[in-house]
DNA sequence: TGTTCGAGATAGATAAATGCTATCAGTTAC
DNA sequence: GTAACTGATAGCATTTATCTATCTCGAACA
């Protein structure tokens, strides 16, 4: 248990700086006795005098005092830095990414981070994510805004459109984009991964459309394989990049153009959590969307 | 002006360590409200919460809190070190050596110092030395104890015998040592450098002897030259090493054997000065007399 | 050699802080 | 729903810091 106070150190340094107790007291806007007593207490705790009190001349630090005062000044400076908020040791920011988004987002995101911004990424399910946010195990979460509790604040970082996935010879593949109305006319393939089937269905229902769900697949990759093989048109928020499915068949993706069909991608923070400087920096970087997020 | 207190930091660190306000209060032997209030004040000053207060579970630091607490702990540790007396920045020890002693002592002394003991040597006259000690401009002084004021403490480091200096064919040169009584019978050569002529005369007077001072020289080297050329026997505390004088004539030195003729060489410190750790170390080294002092 | 002057130390009073007891409020666990 | 526990709040007591007034002690000056 330390018995010294920062005030005592400040006073002692002021005495050295001002060359005397009286002058220092004036500079500090306190009375001379207050400073005299404080200095005496500090010296008593140290067991050695810090200054040679010589009438007339300036108060000269003792040999011990010179070392001590220099160190004290350094201490005070770093203490001031600490209180100013820029604590030197930057613990890694713990960033959670919703598991369905992670394969698309996390790689480019981590690759784009500056070297001096340590991040511990985690890929979590929705429940684990909200739980971790509440428990303070996660600093930032990047996810769809699906039923996040009120105790977390959200900032929309991007709005991601759903994409239709199909073989290159599908008739809708000729178009630059498709509409929900057009999709309602074709057999759809939905994956149980990612945003729920119910979510997709609601998208159509808001426009009075009734989609025909021909297949429900367990994984997104299976959905892409089905679509590539002409079993219907896949629908997905993630994986908008064309190419081919795992079985080698070619695939194209076409954005759904309907206004309001975009799903907001949010950066979530627990409301009563306070981000570290590094955390704030990461949040700003993500909000600035430096190319690692899927294009809306 | 810092408004944070070390106590607040200690409390905050304790909360983190003990996983909660109540547990930390017990560990610190203070009441829970006292700790709660102190923590709130600290958080108010920071403008951000340090902990997520979640009932039941352990108090988890916020992301900001993690960085802050780690830095605070580091700060507290170095503050404790500061108060323990081992301040890191070791200012050079300012060592003054009496000007007549310096040519004999200072070189070997500095050469024998360890590399991590910074010393700023100064060669001063007696008055400048006592003055500097009093003003705190000098930490340690190595000198004869000739009228040092009461305000300096002295520690005898060595007792240096006077030496007779003569040519190798002088009859006293046959002896291993000489006595003051013998010296009283031969023409003496005294230098105005070093201990005063009055001091030498007093040495004889205490034994009821009246020395015959044939020559007084301005410098020690001139005295050695006179002695080498047979003009008398030199008497000196310093330069006991034989060899030859500047003019090339051979010289021998013979110690004065009389008990009580030794002159104490003292290490002086201003009484109200406090040595730095480095200063203490230098003082111990000098007191241990590691070969850089003239043999008694 | 006394006198004056100024810097720091001391004493007593007052204000501010720190801490304690008692109590309240909000959650979790049963 | 209730018990149990954690942290927050309120009011009071104690300690600590600071103030004004005064004292002491050297040094500078005549």
From TrEMBL, chains A, B:
The lineage of its organism: Bacteria, Pseudomonadati, Pseudomonadota, Alphaproteobacteria, Rhodobacterales. Belongs to the LysR transcriptional regulatory family. PANTHER family: HCA OPERON TRANSCRIPTIONAL ACTIVATOR HCAR, TRANSCRIPTIONAL DUAL REGULATOR HCAR-RELATED. Gene3D superfamilies: Periplasmic binding protein-like II (3.40.190.10), Winged helix-like DNA-binding domain superfamily/Winged helix DNA-binding domain (1.10.10.10). GO terms for molecular function: DNA binding; DNA-binding transcription factor activity. The keyword Nucleotidyltransferase does not apply. Residues 4-62 form the HTH lysR-type domain. PROSITE patterns: HTH_LYSR (PS50931). One of its GO terms (cellular component) is protein-DNA complex. This is DNA-binding transcriptional LysR family regulator. Keywords: DNA-binding, Transcription, Transcription regulation. Transmembrane segments: none annotated. SUPFAM superfamilies: Periplasmic binding protein-like II (SSF53850), Winged helix' DNA-binding domain (SSF46785).
């Amino acid at each position: 248990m330390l018995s010294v106070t920062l005030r005592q150190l400040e006073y002692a340094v002021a005495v050295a700086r001002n060359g005397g107790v009286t002058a220092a007291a004036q500079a500090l806007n306190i009375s001379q006795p207050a400073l005299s007593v404080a200095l005496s207490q500090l010296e008593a705790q140290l067991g050695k005098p810090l200054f040679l009190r010589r009438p007339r001349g300036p108060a000269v630090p003792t040999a011990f005092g010179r070392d001590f005062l220099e160190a004290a000044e350094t201490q005070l400076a770093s203490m001031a830095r600490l209180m100013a908020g820029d604590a030197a040791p930057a613990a890694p920011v713990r960033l959670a990414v919703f598991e369905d988004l992670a394969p698309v987002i996390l790689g480019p995101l981590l690759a784009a981070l500056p070297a001096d911004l340590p991040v511990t990424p985690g890929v979590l399910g929705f429940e684990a994510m909200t739980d971790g946010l509440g428990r303070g195990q996660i600093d930032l979460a990047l996810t769809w805004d699906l039923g996040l509790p009120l105790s977390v604040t959200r900032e929309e970082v991007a709005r991601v459109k759903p994409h239709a996935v199909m073989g290159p010879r599908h008739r809708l593949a000729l178009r630059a984009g498709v509409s929900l109305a057009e999709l309602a006319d074709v057999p759809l393939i939905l994956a149980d991964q990612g945003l729920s089937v119910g979510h997709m269905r609601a998208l159509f229902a808001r426009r009075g459309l009734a989609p025909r769900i021909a297949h429900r697949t367990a994984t997104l990759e299976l959905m892409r394989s089905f679509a590539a093989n002409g079993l219907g048109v896949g629908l997905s928020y993630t994986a908008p990049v064309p190419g081919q499915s795992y079985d080698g068949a070619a695939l194209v993706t076409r954005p759904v153009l309907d206004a309001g069909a975009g799903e907001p991608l949010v950066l979530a923070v627990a409301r009563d959590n306070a981000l570290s400087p590094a955390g704030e920096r990461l949040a700003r970087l993500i909000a600035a969307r430096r190319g690692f997020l899927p294009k809306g």
